[in-house]
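Quick one: sequence plus zinc ion SMILES, need C-alpha cells.
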Amino acid sequence: MGFIKFLGTAGARYVVGKQLRYSAGTWIQLSGVDLLLDPGPGTLLRCRRSRPPLAPEKLDGIILTHKHLDHSTDVNIMLEVMAELGHKGRKGVLLAPRECLEGDDPVVLKYVRKYPERIETLEEGRSRDVGPIRVMPVKHRHGDAETYGVILDSPEGKIAFVVDTQFFPELVEHYIGSDLLVLNVVLLQPRSGIDHLSLPEAAELIRTVRPGLAVLTHFGMTMIRARPQELAHRLSEELGTEVIAANDGLTVEAEHWRR
Ligand SMILES: [Zn+2]
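Reply:
Sure thing.
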C-alpha cells in the first residue's frame, strides 16, 4: 500500500509565477509513512484543498531537495503544521541540504527549527532513515544551488525523484534499479546554460534505468505548449516503458509501479 500525489507540477519561474500549474510539492505515502517533497508556493493550500484532504499534521517528514523558491517557499509553514503548531512538542523530520540550514541565505527560519524532532542534512553517499523508508540522496548539478535527487528505498519498491539538474552521464548510474522514476522535465529541448533536464535527456534516463513506471513533472512553458500527455504517450511507445505526464492532483498508486 502506498501512493504518490502530485500537488503541483509547475517547473519554471514563468509557470510558477503565473500559476499556470500549481507549484505545491509531492505527497508520498509508503508503508504508512507520510512524506512531503519540495513544498513550493501553495503547498499548504493544495493539501487542504486536496480531495480527499491531505492533513499536514499527519506528516512524518519533509524533504527539501534545494533552496530554490519553487521547491522551498512553504517549508516553514509546513514544518509548523506538521508539528501541530508545537502543541504536543517536537514532531517530524526535516531532511535538507546544508546550504538550506546554514550560510548566508538559509531558507529554513531559525525560529521554526524548534518544531521538528530531527533536522538532518542531505549529503552525497549518506542515507537517512524515516521509519522503514531509507532516503538516499544523489548529488545533482543545478547551478549554484546545492541540490540532491532522492531515492526512497521502501517496502513498496525504490521510488526515485530526479529533481532539478543538468544532464551528465554519471547521473544515470545512480538511478538504476528504481521501480518508479519521477523526472523534473522543464525543457522540451536541451538548452545550454540552463541547468534543467530536457525531454530527450529524460528519455535517455528512462531508456537506461527501465523503471516499472516513469512520471514526467515540473514542466516549463515549452513542455506545457507541447502537451505533456501526448509527449509521454509517444515516449512510452518509443521506449517500451510506461511513461505518464503528471497533472496537478495526479495520484499514482504503488500497484502501478510494482513489477
Ligand atoms: Zn531549481
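The first helix runs from residue 13 to 18. The chain has one domain: 2-125+133-248.
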